[in-house]
Structures are given as structure tokens and as C-alpha cells.
Design brief:
alpha/beta; seven-stranded mixed sheet; 16 helices; 35% helix; 18% strand
Length: 484
């Protein structure tokens, strides 16, 4: 079937399978115009265990694509981007052995500490895999599974990441890409191969892992029947992790900083240099092309601030200036700083502290964590005065914008394009058809264009106060639960 008359080029599908939902876009590969879209939610457990059934992701993908209507069937290529780090274990028939352990499941904190000690310490890990793995990383989750659910580990015939699982459901072939592989903790960034010594240490047979596809490679064609509205022969791209997809979706050039405000918060920039931060603040991820994506991530961002607003019975925008209250919004433990057992903390309450000031303090605490890692993410020759690209669910919130400007002292640019992760996946799919660099495709689409908000004077007083409270409270925040 030929594309609808209103399109200028072939249609492609980009998918964002995030923590909370799956979003699908049908995009005109020539112009970047979104022709159709769909979305369906995921179920995620609450509490210490953060898990989802991978079959739930598949059903959400099917539902989102059905919402796209005939445009999905007209598409010539598809790419899946997904939440990083999640451990998907499959049996010999390809069915999940157990629910997937998600990136924000912190139960493997003890295994992370043990692996650091057993393999030479943080510097050895950073030099080897580009990152110092914490409990978010897949290698620690596998170690937890072996220790706590050995029967499930023994029943596992294939280990996948979330985007790998969905891509394999499309093609029938086990593949991943370099960006998502770089977040596992068992992919050596220097050689861009699986590290068999690390795999041996955690008891994971390398034959259980997917093949790492090359950027721009066609990894297969859609082979499913009536479940999905794709035509026979639709090309499938390697897919990628969500942050790498957003970098593609922005057409990101080296040195341009991105601050993403979602369930988690991230700061990152494309670099031509392989990162290796022994402090563990910056994860040395690969990007979806041939460069690198040094990134720092906080577990607590928009979800934590919205929770504080709900506790205070306030609208999320109902912040108030003034006061000297400090709120560390570590409601799910924290990754940056590395405090997996931490809880939220409030310091400096007074009789005259208002609910709006307390809510503003939650914003300040979340943004402080991200900005603290920004200089470590950027190369030494990066322009520190250029605008921060502000993306994610919080990017259009006035309170978020004002807080980032006030605490960074930098101009902020808010791209008009939404769903940048799915757009990045769509650009990757379009690259299969045109042979172009997906980032160049996204730049042609103009996805990063948007208003630039002028900088304000940096609020050093607030930054210093939060840093002081964090330093003083570190022993309490790092305290492991009783019985561990």
C-alpha cells in the first residue's frame, strides 16, 4: 500500500517503551511530521521491588500500534527504544521466567558493593566497562537473581534488556545495540565486546546474551502475524536505550548538554571520547551511533516532586519563594548521589515555613543532584555558557524551568518537539531506508527547535545550603536497612 497523499516520503514507526507506558509514533521520514500516534500503560509494582511483566510491554505495544490505525501498516521500517538496565529472563520457549527487574529496583545494592570489591574496585570497573555499576545496572540484578532466586537463574535460557525483548518479538532474532549493552556492566567499552571475565564472575553464560548489532544495521523484518498492524517485510532497526534515542531525536552534536526531567532525571551530552569516571557519578554509555553518551542519572525527579505536591495537597506549580528549608527528595533511594538505601529528608523547618516553600525545596533538591553532575558529563572544551536543552515530562512546567534557570545560571532551551525518545527511534528507522545518520535526519526535521529562556543569576546560596545538608546527613542517608 502506498503512503497517504499528504506524506512526502515513506512512513516509519518509532516506539518508546518507557517505565510507565509504551508510546508509538508513525512519522513521515522526509519531514518528521507525526502522522499517527498511540499510547498504552504498563503495570509496575510499587515498594522496594520494581518489576513489570514483559508480556505487559508487548500487549501495550500492540495496543499503541493499533491506535495508529492504517498508517502503521503503511510503514516501511520500525525501531524500538526502551528503558535501560532492566533484566529480562526468558526460558527455552521464549517466555519470561519471572517479571523483569527494572532499572529503579534497588534490591541489588549489596551485590553491587560485592562486585566492586571482587573485581578490583571502582577504577577497574570504570576502565573496563566505562562505568562503576550500582544497583541500577543489569549485572548486579543478575547477581541478585543468582543469590536470591537460583531456580529462576537456572531456568533462564536467554537474557535480554527491555528493548531487546520487544525487538526479538518482532523479528524472532536476539539482538541488542551498543548503547543499551553499555548499561549492563558486562559489555567492555574499550573493545566493544562482552567481557567474559565479568560474565564468569557472576555465572552468566555469554551464549545467553543477544548479538550486538552495528549502528544502521537491519536486524530483521517483522515476522508476527495479526497481532501487529505491520506489512510483511517491514524492516526492523537495532533499537536503542531511551536516553540514546532522545539524543538521536534531538540530532545532538558533541558538547551540547541535555537535562531530561522524567520519572528519573538525567544529564548527558554526546562525546567523541570514551568516558571512564571512577567516582561512579557519570556512566560511560555508548550512544546509538559511533560516539559516546556520558550520563548521570537520578532516580528521583518528577515523580518524587509530584508526590511531595500530593502530600502537601498542592498543584505541582504552587511553589513559593523564600525560606531556608532543604528537602532531599530521595523517595526511592538515590543513584546520584549513590545512596540506594536513602529516604527523603527535610531540614530547616520553621513555624513560618509555607507549603509552597516546601514544594519549591523539593524542586531544588532534585535539580541540585542533576546540576552537580553536569560539569563531569561535559568535555573540558565544551561551552559552559550554551543553553541547556530541557526535555522530558517536566520540561514544560514553569516551576521546573524556573528552578533549572535559577540553580544553573544558564539559558534554557525547550524543544517544541515532544516524544523525543520515540522520534529518535523513528529517525533510526528512517536511517535504514535512506542510509543517513539518524542524528542528521532529526536535525533536518528540526526537532530541537524551540524558545530559549534567558539565564538568571545563579542562586549559589541555595546550592551551598543543599550541599551542606547532604554532606552532614550522608551517614544517616547511607545507613542500610536493619537485617542487611
Amino acid at each position: 500500500m502506498s503512503p497517504a497523499p499528504s506524506t512526502q516520503g515513506p512512513l516509519v514507526v518509532g516506539v518508546d517503551s518507557s517505565t510507565q507506558s509504551t508510546k508509538a509514533l508513525v512519522v513521515d521520514a522526509a519531514t518528521g511530521r507525526v502522522m499517527a500516534s498511540g499510547q498504552a500503560p504498563h503495570h509496575v509494582t510499587t515498594g522496594e521491588a520494581r518489576e513489570s511483566d514483559p508480556q505487559d510491554w508487548w500487549e501495550a505495544l500492540c495496543a499503541a500500534l493499533r491506535q495508529c490505525g492504517p498508517a502503521a501498516r503503511e510503514s516501511a521500517a520500525v525501531s524500538i527504544s526502551g528503558q535501560q538496565h532492566g533484566l529480562v529472563t526468558l526460558d527455552k520457549s521464549g517466555r519470561p521466567v519471572r517479571p523483569a527487574l527494572l532499572w529503579n529496583d534497588m534490591r541489588s545494592a549489596a551485590q553491587a558493593r560485592s562486585l566492586l570489591e571482587r573485581f578490583g574496585g571502582p577504577k577497574e570497573w570504570a576502565d573496563r566497562v566505562g562505568s562503576v555499576p550500582g544497583p541500577s545496572f543489569t549485572v548486579t540484578k543478575w547477581a541478585w537473581l543468582v543469590e536470591h532466586e537460583p531456580a529462576a537463574a537456572r531456568s533462564t535460557a536467554a537474557v535480554r534488556l527491555p528493548h531487546d525483548y520487544l525487538t526479538e518479538r518482532l523479528t524472532g532474532l536476539g539482538t541488542t545495540d551498543r548503547s543499551d549493552a553499555s548499561g549492563t556492566g558486562w559489555w567492555a567499552s574499550a573493545s566493544e565486546t562482552y567481557d567474559e571475565e565479568i560474565l564468569g564472575m557472576v555465572g552468566l553464560d555469554p551464549t545467553l546474551l543477544p548479538r550486538v548489532a552495528r549502528p544502521g544495521e537491519v536486524v530483521g523484518t517483522v515476522h508476527v502475524g495479526d497481532e501487529l498492524p505491520f506489512s510483511k517485510g517491514t524492516l526492523v532497526a537495532p533499537g536503542t536505550g531511551d536516553n540514546a534515542a532522545a539524543a538521536l531525536g534531538l540530532g545532538l552534536r558533541p558538547g551540547t548538554p541535555v537535562l531530561s526531567l522524567g520519572t528519573s532525571g538525567t544529564v548527558y551530552a554526546v562525546s567523541r571520547h570514551r568516558p571512564a569516571d571512577p567516582t561512579g557519578t557519570v556512566a560511560g554509555f555508548a550512544d546509538a551511533r559511533d560516539a559516546w553518551l556520558p550520563l548521570a542519572c537520578t532516580l528521583n525527579c518528577t515523580l518524587a516532586v509530584d508526590r511531595m505536591a500530593a502530600l502537601l495537597s498542592l498543584d505541582r506549580e504552587a511553589v513559593a519563594p523564600g525560606g531556608a528549608v532543604t528537602l532531599l527528595p530521595y523517595l526511592d533511594g538515590e543513584r546520584t548521589p549513590n545512596l540506594p538505601h536513602s529516604t527523603g529528608m527535610v531540614h530547616g523547618l520553621r513555624h513560618d515555613t509555607t507549603p509552597g516553600q516546601l514544594l519549591q525545596a523539593a524542586y531544588d533538591g532534585a535539580v541540585h543532584s542533576l546540576l552537580g553532575a553536569l560539569d563531569l558529563v561535559l568535555d573540558t572544551d565544551a561551552d559552559r555558557s550554551s543553553p541547556l536543552l530541557l526535555i522530558g515530562g517536566g520540561a514544560r512546567g514553569t516551576a521546573w524551568q524556573h528552578t533549572v534557570r535559577r540553580l544553573s545560571g544558564r539559558p534554557v532551551q525547550v524543544p517544541k518537539a515532544q516524544e523525543l525518545v520515540a522520534l529518535g527511534a523513528a529517525a533510526q528507522a528512517a536511517g535504514l531506508l535512506t542510509g543517513e545518520d539518524p542524528s542528521a535526519i532529526a536535525r533536518r526535521w528540526g526537532t530541537a527547535q524551540g524558545p530559549v529562556l534567558d539565564p538568571t543569576e545563579r542562586d549559589d546560596e541555595t546550592l551551598t545550603r543543599i550541599s551542606g545538608v547532604l554532606s552532614d546527613a550522608a551517614p544517616l542517608l547511607d545507613r542500610a536497612p536493619r537485617g542487611e
